Every structure is written in structure tokens, then in C-alpha cells.
Amino acid sequence: MRFKLVHTLLAAALVLGVAPLASAKTFVTIGSGSTSGLYYPTAVGMAKIVNEADIDIRANARSTGASVFNCRAVGEGQLQMGISQNNIAYYAYKGRGVEAFDGKPVDNLRGMAVLYPETIQVLAREDADIDSLSDLKGKRVYVGDIGSGTEQDVKNVLGAFDMSLDDLKAPVRGSSGSAVGLLRDGQIDAMFYTVGLGASAITEAAQTAPIELVSIPSERIEALNEKYPFYTEITIPGGTYPGIDDDVTSITLKASLVTSSDVSEDVVYQFMKTVFADHKDAFYNDIPNPNLKKYFTLESALEGMSIPLHAGAVRFFEEQGIEVKDSLMPPS
After folding, report:
1. Cα(201)–Cα(207) distance, integer angstroms
2. Cα separation of 136 and 129, whole Å?
3. Bridge partner residues of 28 (DSSP)
4. Which of 112, 123, 238, 310 stands the most exposed, by the fewest C-beta atoms within 10 Å?
5. Which top-level group of life is the source organism from (predicted)?
6. Half-sphere exposure of residue 27: CA atoms within 13 angstroms, side-chain side
């Protein structure tokens, strides 16, 4: 009787022209970062856009340790997509530059789009007597969550000042959100935070404690750029954060969206078309990350891409009339 019922339902579906599995959804988890940064609301916002669209993808965002974790988890299939600094994505793909990837390249890592620049911001308490990065010697400094892109940035930037983590009184680790609280309460003297300009955590800290941004001299940035071409100079305009009125020179990278070659071409293409084309207004206006509207365009979405694109991304960009360089084509 049960067999007859199933057979009847299948026959009815065929008569009505309905494929029994046509409504199957592909589930996508997007790795982000700390809930106090910009990766998390960006991932949440993209997932919301996808879920509210009439496509066969269901998406959710996951708070993670950020770039290093995301690249590794995407490669292992724990995540289908993730947000990462472009330099960390490069290190992951090449299997060098970061201890987590040394000799272990994530060769199935693929790029989707460059989203916005993010800046290495050095915050210090005004009462800590820190006027330059050299003054961090002997200080209590937050250096990033374990395995995060911020941690690697700190090592590279200190190296440009002939310093290392050993020169600090106490390299403090943990989440960036917790570090902001420690800085506000005077339990640390300074912190590095690689994040988009206008991050809410820094805004809140500047509103509640005597905090300043430490400038990095142009000549030091140039020397850093010679060794690590990902790092370029950026000016943080005065007024970006409450009480910090002067322009500050610092270093910028690019936040990028990555995926795995194991994710299907159609899924990546549908995701990108939905978020970056069909619902671009929501991408610009509904996601609480001002850098998206200020910096993201399809024309700039490949600038700073450091790994080969996914086939679905190539399809999307070419459909939008954006030229894809041979160097960004997926390996055959």
C-alpha cells in the first residue's frame, strides 16, 4: 500500500510537471570574524539578502577567529565561504607566510570578490606615552586573536621597526571585542586592530576612554611594502572616530570573499548575482558596514584579488562585462 501511495504521488508530480527534488536547497555557511568587527555584520547581511531572495540557497553567518581560520575551514569543507584579508588568502593558497599554512597549501581556495579596504589601526591610551610604534616596547599590547590575520599583521609591522612580540611586556591575545574593553579599562596600553574604518568597537572605545590612534610613518610603510606588497599607505581622516580630530597615516589591506573549488559553479554564481547585482541596493544600504557603499564596485572587485577566482565568479564578472585577467583564472 505504501509503495502504491509513493508511486501515485511521484506520478502526480510528473503529470503536473513538478520535479520532486526541484526545491532542494544548498546550504552555505559564511565564516566571518569577531562580532565586534565588520566581518560579522557583513556576512550576516549577505546571508540575509540570499535568504530573502527566491533562489535555491540558504545561507548563515558564523562568528570565527577570522581570516586564518576561515581560509583553513573553507579548504576543509567546514565552511563554504568566508571573509579574509587578501594577504592571508594568498598565504593560505601558497602554503607559506603564516605558520598555520607552512607546507600545507589550501589549493582548493578560490576568490569571489574584493569587498573593501581594511586598515591596520593602532589604538593607544593617551596616558600610556605611546607616540610611535617604537614606544610599544615594554608595553601591554593586544596582538590579535590566535590564528587571526591581525596577529600576522602585528608580526610583520613590528618587524619594520626591528621589533618582535618578544619586545612587548605582554602580548595579549583573545577576541578584539574583549581587547577593546581591556584598553578602555586600562588593563592594556595599546592594541592592533585590522578592520574597516568606522568599526563600532573603536567608536565605542573612543567615546568612553581617552584613546588615540598611533600614526605609522610613510617611510616605514614603504619599507614594509617592499617586503609585503599587500601593505599600502592609507590616511585615516580626522573625525572618523569621536575625539580623534587629526589625520593619521596607517596601512591598508583588502577584505575579500573566498570559497572552495568544491562549491558548485551555479551556487557561487547565484550567490554573487543575488548579492552584488540583483540586490545591490540592499548590499549597500542594509548591511551595517559603511565601507561597502563607500568602496565596493564591480569594477574594483578584482583589485587586490590575490588568489585564482572560482569558476562561478568568472562567469558572474564576465556576464557583468568585467574583464578577468588570465592570472585570476582558475587552474585547469
Report:
1. 10
2. 9
3. 59
4. 238
5. Bacteria
6. 7
Structural domain for 274, as ranges:
24-115+255-328
Alpha helices, DSSP H only, in 146-259?
149-159, 176-184, 200-208, 218-227
What pLDDT, on a 0 to 100 scale, did the predictor assign at position 43? 98
Q: Which residues contact 15 (CB under 8 A, 6 or more apart)?
A: none
Surface-to-core class of residue 256, CB atoms within 10 Å of its CB (0-12 exposed, 13-18 middle, 19+ buried) = buried
| Residue that is written with C-alpha cell 573553507 in the block | 74
pTM of the model: 0.77
Geometric angle at alpha carbon 294, from 208 and 236, rounded to 5° = 45
Q: Which of 235, 253, 271 is the last residue of a domain?
A: 253
Rounded Cα–Cα distance for residues 329 and 307 (Å): 9
Residue pointed to by grid coordinates 554573487: 272
Regarding whether 162 and 150 lie in a shared domain, the answer is yes
149 close to 138: Cβ distance less than 8 angstroms = no
Residues 48 and 40: their CA atoms lie apart, in Å, by 12
Q: Which of 253, 280, 309 is the last residue of a domain?
A: 253
Measure the CA angle with vertex 38, ends 33 and 44; round to 5°. Answer: 75
pLDDT on residue 147: 65
C-alpha count within 13 angstroms, C-beta hemisphere, residue 11:
6
Give yes or no for residue 17 having a pLDDT over 70: no
**Of 302, 278, 275, whose CA–CA distance to 289 is shortest?**
275
> Which pLDDT tens digit goes with each residue over 83-106?
999 999 999 999 988 888 999 999
Distance CA 287, CA 309 (A): 24
pLDDT value at position 14?
Answer: 38
Cell of 124: 593607544
* Residue 11 located in a structural domain: no
